[in-house]
From TrEMBL:
SUPFAM superfamilies: Periplasmic binding protein-like II. InterPro entries: PBP_domain (IPR024370), Phosphate_ABC_transporter (IPR050811). The lineage of its organism: Bacteria, Pseudomonadati, Bacteroidota, Flavobacteriia, Flavobacteriales. Residues 28-263 form the PBP domain. This is Substrate-binding domain-containing protein. Keywords: Signal.
Length: 290
């Protein structure tokens, strides 16, 4: 009898301890805490998406950390973070490492079209730069193009786009996209390479101020000139347009995957649009009435 009573009490305690809060599933996308790392070049859109998601689900907390793209990828493999944002294509070795370390298939969740933008001081006579000129400058000992550091998304993407490796490129460094813009006037002969999202947010005073303090160069390819405008991101005609995507190591549909799904749905894509970037899943449609 005593043993039976002890067993019943044990079962009762177990049931109480496992009881869930009303309307909330433990480990669900609507509650919990995760960490996401992103490169500074697309911090603005990442911040906007996380803030919107947490406003929708008050029981969630997404810790957003800024870190160079390559290091974020390593942190994801070592399970130090739950979600990262990438812009370059992973190598075959990196994809295999992702599959092995996370136990998941490499499946990028694309959510926005962004770009690497080339800027010069406001009073510079230069209006454009060709892709060929960019290639030449990146082999020049004068290091006329300024990037925001090694292992950064901007450097990685440009190197990949030009079919070379970052360690073979010659460049100058000013840490941070904003710092490049703010200090560029000190180097009248240099060209800054920044992420579009740094200056893309419309109606934002800081973004507008940064944008107005430099001249954005048109990029010429095959005798055609392209500006880093949204319409040139839709069809990726701007030579240095890129697609941002999420990667996660979460093996179930929890907060990380819930946030990623939100970012790719209409509501999340509207947030991307308000950031001045091209949403990956929403394209402007023109209808002609006759």
């Amino acid at each position: 009898m005593k043993n039976r009573l002890v067993l019943m009490i044990s079962i009762f305690v177990l049931l109480i301890s496992c009881k869930k809060k009303p309307g909330v599933v433990v480990g669900s996308p609507q509650e919990g805490e995760i960490t996401m790392e992103v490169d500074e070049s697309f911090a603005s859109v990442s911040e906007a998406l996380t803030e919107r998601y947490m406003a929708l689900y008050p029981n969630t907390k997404i810790n957003l950390k800024i870190k160079k793209e390559d290091f974020s990828f390593l942190d994801l493999l070592e399970a130090k973070v739950d979600v990262i944002v990438m812009s370059r294509e992973l190598s075959k070795v990196e994809k295999n490492a992702y599959n092995k370390e996370t136990g998941l298939d490499w499946l990028p969740a694309k959510f926005a079209a962004d770009a690497v933008v080339f800027v010069v001081p406001k009073d510079s006579p230069r209006e454009s730069i060709t892709v060929e000129e960019i290639k030449q400058e990146l082999t020049n000992d004068k290091k006329n193009i300024i990037f925001d550091g090694t292992n950064s998304s901007n450097l990685n993407f440009v190197a990949q786009k030009l079919n070379t490796k970052p360690d073979l490129i010659k460049f100058s460094i000013i840490n941070g996209n904003k710092n490049i813009i703010e200090q560029l006037n000190k180097f009248p002969d240099k060209i800054g390479a920044i992420g579009l999202n740094t200056i893309s947010r419309p109606y934002d005073s800081e973004s507008e101020k940064l944008k107005q303090s430099v001249k954005i160069l048109k990029v010429v390819q095959d005798n055609k000139s392209f500006e880093p405008r949204v319409e040139n991101l839709i069809d990726m005609s701007y030579p240095f347009a890129r697609v941002l995507y999420f990667l996660t190591n979460e093996k179930y549909f929890g907060l990380a995957n819930g946030f990623i799904r939100f970012s790719c749905t209409q509501l999340g894509q509207i947030v991307v649009s308000k950031e001045g970037l091209q949403p990956y899943y929403i394209f402007k449609r023109e209808v002609q009435m006759r």
